[in-house]
Structures are given as structure tokens and as C-alpha cells.
């Protein structure tokens, strides 16, 4: 546990002042002197991270890495992999005890092998003292069985992207805030030949997030807080019927969509409402200003349960127990989360990422463009991957196996009736949660 | 005489040689030493992973955690798993249809390429292109070709006035299966065509000349000379083709990820999804191990059905 004494407080204050002056290297040096985690002599770290959304984010991150290296002498090697490749590689590293010292990935992947993760209780608590508390969903991603095994660095907000003109033409002045209004909007869009579309294929991000929203918003859950399977419920049946009604209004082909399909369709003018991060807007601003001017974002409508039931992507970072430099790993994690480093990086991410802590200093990225503002709420409004259940390797398996997505897709395509779709999901859950 | 030789006392010079010298001189041991590196490589990279995989299938191993022996539990869950049986069905359908069509088209192409045509070498090189292109690249190309919004086929048909809306190639289960099978055929035909072409070129022209003088028709020449003489190479090429098709992964993963609603999941992709992405190594290993009997049957049909012909040993087929 880090001990805060007068000397470290003074050094910390000096570091913050330097950062405020925009001197990242100076801040880093001052921070390193006062940091509770002193990297091992001669330590070097290898970090495997998710592939950038935008070059600016990557550049800002590398500046942060360079400053850390200059201040601590810890050499860092950064490698990038696409979303879907991070989890298998992290799993193999955990299994073999060899590979990168740290992995920064998606969703609940640390929960796949909690025993292999370096405990980061001290870092999480120190960061929370300064900028906290952690949002409940962030805490759920970072902890397994009450122990911090990873640091939930950020959330990627996936919200509703819509064309303003199509919304108005469908008879809405503002985006509907409840599920009934949302269905009416989709019907109106379909009628005007400006359809909506949401991925029902094996889309790790887009498919899982919106299908879980649909299930949770109606009060359905795959498992309860004790991991008891509760998917076979009237609430799930209602969610299935609701999604089928939505599906009837969709642009054709959503059953085969992956994570990039809706981006392409929206930007080509074939799609007028979908769920996505800010990437569609960012791409439109760059290449298609007409669409950018005519689009906006909205939070997910609230369903019969009466509260937000969003499911946003989390980006936790973990260090392995096998690392030869555990202190260096912890120092880097703490360094990343310092507002002086974190805020410029978050700003460079142009709205793709949102903070996981309640009291982070306000970031101009949310106020510079009113269309970005929605995405700031991702950490606050999101539920964690398990819904009622704690994040665990089993929940990670539910997402990787597309249990909920396939339940909705099989019903929407007519392959299964409500009972059959629920039975299949229940059976998959029994397989995954057996012996739990 | 052999007994006499064995009962003879060893020459004094031989008996006095060291064990190392005898080991070096022994033909039996020479064979052993020559085989040892290969055996080690095969054992390390083939037998060990296979046996380890089979062992894992009897455990509840998860990624990052050693499992405990649970007997046939993984198999019992698979036995009652609709998605697994759908993957088995898809794999068999995929292998059967793709292999048969690849063989038919490949043989036809090989026969064409065996004739004297202009720019023969160039044409033969061009035919190999689908096989040379990395699988993932060709799969991504097909993914675009069959995209639900941007398919060039849908676009062309719409502009020709044949259809009103886009064809949902990868969203309809049967169409999606047809699309991935088509992509596999496109990719696999050159391998079969070029290998069969090599076989065709070993057939002596004098046989064709004799048949022509005897007044044999083209079909008779093909069925009585070409096909029988090609049979051994067909057995080899189809065994490889069935193996590659049955264990295909990249095409499916890049094009559909097993969707829509698992309609194109093959056993290999399901094994990867469950074993690596979901982290349930034991279950993934059970699916992979379940492929072995199917593979053995498929190889058996290709091998014994085509290779062991009595006529090849001078006898008559029954």
C-alpha cells in the first residue's frame, strides 16, 4: 500500500504544477520521485494493447510512454493487436507464463485467468483516492471476487448514432427516451425508407452491447447475482418479442453484420440509425461533412425496468504475475491514470474513450463539440458485462460465445420461436455455468 | 545354413571390438540413428500436441489453469449440444460438396490444360493464382463480394433490373453456406487441377495412340485409360483436399465468424471459439478431438476407395 507523507505530498504537488505548465517530461520526473512504486533496477516492460482508433490517440499514448521511460528509465515495448486478437494472445501468455508483461484489452478478459493477474489493489485504491470513486461498472471490470486484478483504464461509449433529418421526417423532434418510443421511431424510419440497423451477427462489440441492452432493459438476465441461470423468464420473452419487432424495421442483412458493417452502411447513406462509438461521426467529419452535420448521438432509451441498462466496452489493463518487474508495471498503470497524462490522452482520443472515475477533471473533448457530450457518460451509465452477476471468466465466455446475440438472432430470423430461443440460450448458459 | 552360421563362434577380431564400434557398424542401428531426428520431430510437433489435445478433452482445463480429469463430461455436454451438431452437419456438408465440386472442376481444368493450347505456360500459371493468394485476403475479398449492403453481385443485378433489393448472401443460412463453399471451391480448384495435370502428363501418349487406332471414342479413352491411370494420384490429391477442407478455418472466420446464428460454424471454428475465445480449453479440445473419427472416415474413403484397386496389382476389380 502506498504511504502518503508530507514529503510525497509536496513532490506530488510539484509534479501537478509542472503538468499544469504542459511539461510532461518534467512532470514525469517529479512524479517518479514521489511515486509509491519504484521500478526494479534495469526493468523493461512489454505491453500488448488494442489497436488504436485514431492516430492522435496512439501518438498521445506514445508520448506518455516516452515520458515514463525518461523519468523512470524503464524501457517499454508497445505492440498493437486488433480487438479480437488481444484475448487469445493474452490467454496464451497466461497459460504459458511467457509473453508481454502487461496486456491492455477489451471487456472482461482479465476474468478469464484471474489467478495469473498481478494484484493491483494498491494502484486502484491510490487512483480512487485522487480521482475516485470508480464507477460501479469500472469496479466490476477491475475486480474478481473482491480483489483488483486489472485497472479499468477507460470506457468506449457505444451510443445511438442517428441522422437528424431522418428523425424529424419520422415525426420526432427529439430522440425518444423509452423503448416504446424507440420502436415507434424505427417503424417511422422504415416507413420513410431511411431504416435503422443493429448487428445481429457475431459482432463482438456492437452485437453484444445492444443485445444485452435489449435484454436488461426489459428486466431479463442470463444469470442472477449468484450465477443462477434465470434467462427463462417472462421478461426475456418480452425482450425477444420487442427485438423481433425492431428487427422487422431493420435494413436487410444485419444478421451477418460484424463490427464494421454498420459504420460502412451509415457512412454510405444506407443506414440512418445504429449503435456505435464516435468513430462514425469522426469519419464523417473527415470525409463526409454533410453526414456529420446531419447526425447526432443519443443515450440508450430506458426500458420497462426504469433505469439505464447500457452495456459499454471497458478497456482494462492487467499485469501478469510472471512479470519480472511488478513494481514497474504498477508504476506505469498509476502514471497512466494521473490526470496530467490521462486528460491529454483522452482528449487525443477525440471522444472514443471516457473516464472510469467520477471525479476526473473535466475534459474539453466533451464540451468542444456538443455532439460529443453523450459519450462522456459511458462509464457512469454502463452496467458491467454480467448484468446482475459479477464479472467472471464465465461471463467472458458468454460474450465470446455470443449466447445472448444468438438468442435474439435465432428468434428474429424465425429459426426459433420464443421458447426455443430461450431454451437454446439456457442450455448454453448451463454448459458455461456448470459446476459454478 | 543360417543355423550353422549363428552357432559359429564370432571371429575374435569382431568380439573384441568395443560396443561403440559395433553400434557404429550395425546396419540396424544406422537405420535407428537416421530415423531418430524425424521421430523426435514428429513426436514433439505431431504426436505430443495430438495426445495433449486428447488429454485436455477429458479435463475441465481453462486458459491459464490446469484442469482436473472429468472423464467424458465434455463429450456428454457436446452430445446434447445443438450448436455442436450443427457444426458437425456444416462441416460434413462443406467437405462433401466442396470436395466433390473441386474434384470435378479440377479434373476438367486439368484435362483442358493438358491439351495443346496457346500460351500454355502462362495459362497454367494464371490458374494457380487463387491458390497463391493468402487465404485471409481472398476471404476478405469474398466477404465484400457477398456483403449485405455492398455486394457487387447485388449491385450488378439491381442495375440490370433483375432484383429490387440487395441479396442477403451472408445473412440467410443456406445462402451463407453456399457462399463459403463457393469461396472454398474457388480457392481449392487450382491445387487439384495442377496436381492432376502432373498425373496426366505421366500417361504414355502411346496408350492414347493405340486406343485411337483401335477406334476408341473420347469417352472410352477417358474412362478406360486416363481415369484408371490417374486413380492413384486422385487418391492422394483427394485425401489432401478432404483434409484441408474438413479442417478449414480461415475462410469461415474471415467471412462469417460462424454466423448467421451459427449456420456456417465448422468444427474447427467452433473449437476455436469455445477453446480460445471463451477460455474453455477442455471443451474446445473435445470438439477438436471429435473431428478425428470423421477425418479418419473421410481419409479412409478417399484412400481405400481409390487406392487399393486390384488392377493396380495386376488383378481384376470385383
Automatic annotation (TrEMBL), chain A:
<dbReference type="InterPro" id="IPR006311">
    <property type="entry name" value="TAT_signal"/>
</dbReference>
<protein>
    <submittedName>
        <fullName>Extracellular solute-binding protein</fullName>
    </submittedName>
</protein>
<dbReference type="InterPro" id="IPR050490">
    <property type="entry name" value="Bact_solute-bd_prot1"/>
</dbReference>
<comment type="similarity">
    <text>Belongs to the bacterial solute-binding protein 1 family.</text>
</comment>
<dbReference type="GO" id="GO:0042597">
    <property type="term" value="C:periplasmic space"/>
</dbReference>
<dbReference type="InterPro" id="IPR006059">
    <property type="entry name" value="SBP"/>
</dbReference>
<keyword id="KW-0813">Transport</keyword>
<keyword id="KW-0574">Periplasm</keyword>
<dbReference type="Pfam" id="PF13416">
    <property type="entry name" value="SBP_bac_8"/>
</dbReference>
<keyword id="KW-0732">Signal</keyword>
TrEMBL record, chain B:
<feature type="domain" description="ABC transmembrane type-1">
    <location>
        <begin position="88"/>
        <end position="302"/>
    </location>
</feature>
<protein>
    <submittedName>
        <fullName>Sugar ABC transporter permease</fullName>
    </submittedName>
</protein>
<keyword id="KW-1003">Cell membrane</keyword>
<feature type="transmembrane region" description="Helical">
    <location>
        <begin position="285"/>
        <end position="306"/>
    </location>
</feature>
<feature type="transmembrane region" description="Helical">
    <location>
        <begin position="125"/>
        <end position="146"/>
    </location>
</feature>
<keyword id="KW-0812">Transmembrane</keyword>
<keyword id="KW-0813">Transport</keyword>
<dbReference type="InterPro" id="IPR000515">
    <property type="entry name" value="MetI-like"/>
</dbReference>
<feature type="transmembrane region" description="Helical">
    <location>
        <begin position="221"/>
        <end position="246"/>
    </location>
</feature>
<feature type="transmembrane region" description="Helical">
    <location>
        <begin position="175"/>
        <end position="200"/>
    </location>
</feature>
<dbReference type="InterPro" id="IPR035906">
    <property type="entry name" value="MetI-like_sf"/>
</dbReference>
<feature type="transmembrane region" description="Helical">
    <location>
        <begin position="32"/>
        <end position="51"/>
    </location>
</feature>
<dbReference type="GO" id="GO:0055085">
    <property type="term" value="P:transmembrane transport"/>
</dbReference>
<feature type="transmembrane region" description="Helical">
    <location>
        <begin position="83"/>
        <end position="113"/>
    </location>
</feature>
<keyword id="KW-0472">Membrane</keyword>
<comment type="similarity">
    <text>Belongs to the binding-protein-dependent transport system permease family.</text>
</comment>
<dbReference type="GO" id="GO:0005886">
    <property type="term" value="C:plasma membrane"/>
</dbReference>
<keyword id="KW-1133">Transmembrane helix</keyword>
<dbReference type="Pfam" id="PF00528">
    <property type="entry name" value="BPD_transp_1"/>
</dbReference>
Amino acid at each position: 500500500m502506498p504511504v502518503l507523507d508530507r514529503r510525497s505530498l509536496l513532490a506530488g504537488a510539484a509534479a501537478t504544477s509542472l503538468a499544469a505548465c504542459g511539461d510532461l517530461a518534467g512532470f514525469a520526473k517529479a512524479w517518479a520521485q514521489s511515486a509509491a512504486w519504484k521500478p526494479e533496477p534495469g526493468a523493461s516492460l512489454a505491453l500488448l494493447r488494442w489497436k488504436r482508433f485514431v492516430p492522435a490517440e496512439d501518438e498521445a499514448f506514445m508520448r506518455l510512454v516516452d515520458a515514463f521511460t525518461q523519468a523512470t528509465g524503464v524501457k517499454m515495448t508497445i505492440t498493437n493487436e486488433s480487438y479480437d486478437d488481444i484475448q487469445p494472445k493474452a490467454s496464451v501468455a497466461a497459460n504459458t507464463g511467457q509473453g508481454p508483461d502487461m496486456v491492455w484489452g477489451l471487456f472482461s478478459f482479465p476474468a478469464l485467468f484471474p489467478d495469473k493477474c498481478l494484484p493491483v489493489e494498491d494502484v486502484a485504491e491510490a487512483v480512487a483516492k485522487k480521482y475516485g470513486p470508480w464507477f460501479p461498472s469500472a469496479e466490476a471490470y477491475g475486480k474478481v471476487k473482491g480483489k483488483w486484478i486489472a485497472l479499468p483504464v477507460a470506457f468506449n461509449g457505444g451510443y445511438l448514432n442517428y441522422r437528424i433529418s431522418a428523425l424529424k421526417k419520422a415525426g420526432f423532434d427529439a430522440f425518444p427516451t423509452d423503448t416504446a418510443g424507440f420502436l415507434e421511431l424505427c417503424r417511422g424510419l422504415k416507413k420513410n425508407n431511411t431504416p435503422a440497423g443493429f448487428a445481429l451477427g457475431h459482432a463482438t462489440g456492437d452485437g453484444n452491447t445492444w443485445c444485452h441492452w435489449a435484454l436488461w432493459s426489459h428486466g431479463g438476465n442470463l444469470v442472477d447475482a449468484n450465477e443462477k441461470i434465470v434467462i427463462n423468464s417472462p421478461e426475456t420473452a418480452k425482450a425477444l418479442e420487442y427485438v423481433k419487432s425492431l428487427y422487422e424495421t431493420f435494413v436487410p442483412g444485419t444478421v451477418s453484420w460484424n463490427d464494421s458493417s454498420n459504420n460502412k452502411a451509415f457512412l454510405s447513406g444506407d443506414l440512418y440509425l445504429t449503435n456505435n462509438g464516435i468513430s462514425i461521426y469522426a469519419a464523417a467529419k473527415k470525409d463526409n461533412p454533410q453526414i456529420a452535420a446531419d447526425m447526432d448521438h443519443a443515450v440508450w432509451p430506458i426500458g420497462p425496468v426504469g433505469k439505464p441498462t447500457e452495456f459499454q466496452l471497458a478497456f482494462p489493463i492487467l499485469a501478469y504475475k510472471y512479470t519480472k518487474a511488478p513494481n514497474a508495471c504498477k508504476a506505469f498503470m498509476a502514471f497512466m491514470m494521473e490526470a496530467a497524462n490521462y486528460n491529454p490522452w483522452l482528449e487525443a482520443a477525440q471522444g472514443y474513450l471516457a473516464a472510469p472515475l467520477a471525479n476526473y477533471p473535466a475534459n474539453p473533448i466533451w464540451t468542444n463539440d456538443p455532439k460529443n457530450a453523450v459519450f462522456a457518460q459511458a462509464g457512469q451509465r454502463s452496467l458491467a458485462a454480467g448484468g446482475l452477476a459479477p464479472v467472471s471468466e464465465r461471463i467472458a465466455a458468454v460474450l465470446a460465445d455470443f449466447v445472448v446475440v444468438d438468442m435474439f438472432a435465432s428468434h428474429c430470423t424465425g429459426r426459433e420461436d420464443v421458447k426455443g430461443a430461450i431454451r437454446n440460450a439456457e442450455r448454453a448458459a448451463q454448459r458455461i455455468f456448470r459446476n459454478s | 545354413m543360417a543355423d550353422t552360421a549363428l552357432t559359429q563362434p564370432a571371429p575374435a577380431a569382431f568380439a573384441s571390438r568395443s560396443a561403440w564400434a559395433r553400434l557404429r557398424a550395425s546396419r540396424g542401428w544406422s537405420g535407428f540413428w537416421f530415423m531418430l531426428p524425424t521421430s523426435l520431430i514428429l513426436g514433439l510437433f505431431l504426436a505430443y500436441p495430438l495426445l495433449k489435445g486428447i488429454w485436455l478433452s477429458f479435463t475441465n482445463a481453462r486458459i491459464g489453469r490446469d484442469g482436473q480429469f472429468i472423464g467424458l463430461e465434455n463429450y456428454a455436454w457436446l452430445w446434447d449440444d445443438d450448436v455442436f451438431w450443427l457444426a458437425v452437419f456444416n462441416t460434413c456438408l462443406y467437405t462433401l460438396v466442396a470436395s466433390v465440386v473441386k474434384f470435378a472442376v479440377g479434373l476438367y481444368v486439368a484435362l483442358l490444360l493438358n491439351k495443346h493450347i496457346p500460351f500454355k505456360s502462362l495459362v497454367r500459371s494464371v490458374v494457380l493464382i487463387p491458390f497463391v493468394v493468402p487465404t485471409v485476403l481472398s476471404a476478405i475479398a469474398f466477404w465484400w463480394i457477398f456483403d449485405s449492403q455492398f455486394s457487387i453481385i447485388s449491385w450488378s443485378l439491381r442495375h440490370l433490373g433483375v432484383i429490387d433489393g440487395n441479396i442477403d448472401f451472408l445473412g440467410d443460412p443456406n445462402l451463407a453456406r453456399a457462399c463459403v463453399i463457393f469461396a472454398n471451391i474457388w480457392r481449392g480448384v487450382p491445387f487439384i487441377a495442377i496436381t492432376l495435370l502432373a498425373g496426366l502428363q505421366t500417361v504414355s501418349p502411346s496408350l492414347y495412340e493405340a486406343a485411337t487406332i483401335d477406334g476408341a471414342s473420347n469417352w472410352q479413352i477417358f474412362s478406360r485409360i486416363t481415369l484408371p491411370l490417374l486413380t492413384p494420384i486422385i487418391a492422394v490429391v483427394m485425401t489432401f483436399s478432404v483434409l484441408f477442407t474438413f479442417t478449414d478455418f480461415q475462410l469461415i472466420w474471415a467471412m462469417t465468424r460462424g454466423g448467421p446464428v451459427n449456420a456456417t460454424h465448422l468444427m474447427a471454428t467452433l473449437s476455436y471459439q469455445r477453446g480460445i475465445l471463451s477460455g474453455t480449453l477442455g471443451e474446445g479440445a473435445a470438439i477438436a478431438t471429435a473431428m478425428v473419427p470423421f477425418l479418419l472416415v473421410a481419409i479412409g474413403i478417399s484412400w481405400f476407395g481409390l487406392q487399393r484397386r486390384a488392377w493396380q496389382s495386376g488383378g481384376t476389380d470385383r
